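User: For documentation purposes, I need each entry recorded in a consistent format: the amino acid sequence on its own, followed directly by the corresponding structure tokens. There are two entries in this batch. Please keep commentary to a minimum and don't merge the entries.

Assistant: Recorded as requested. Entry 1:
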Amino acid sequence: MTTLNSTFGMEYAPTPFMMRFGRREMLVTRDFRKRFYAVNPFIECDTGVEPGHVEILLFSRWLLILSKAH
């Protein structure tokens, strides 16, 4: 018998990483959000949750978040 805990499935999630290019930052992470609309299977571009952010969804799996560096 196995015991489920709060981290169930998270050990398979890749670690997000951030890159900085001068005054810009790019965060690369796996997208776990449920999309309630038809997503383009190759690339989808949308505004981010904060002003100045751009989210790019690649292959319906990888999320690139572009923003200004703080």
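Entry 2:
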Amino acid sequence: MYGDEIHLWLHHIRAERLRDEAREASRPHRRSRSARARVLRARVGWTLVEVGLRLATPRLPQSGLTARFDH
């Protein structure tokens, strides 16, 4: 029958497309970071540097005037 041949032909086309998709998915590919992700990463990095510097810097002794108002 004519319809059976078309049906089989469509199955072959679909199978070929699925094989192509599987082949493409199995290839290792490198994703580049978006500009927004790079900006966010830089901002977080500099924030961590700032926090680290604040933790590493010794505090200055408080003067007597400010010590009285801390209570």
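Summary note for entry 2:
The first helix runs from residue 2 to 26.
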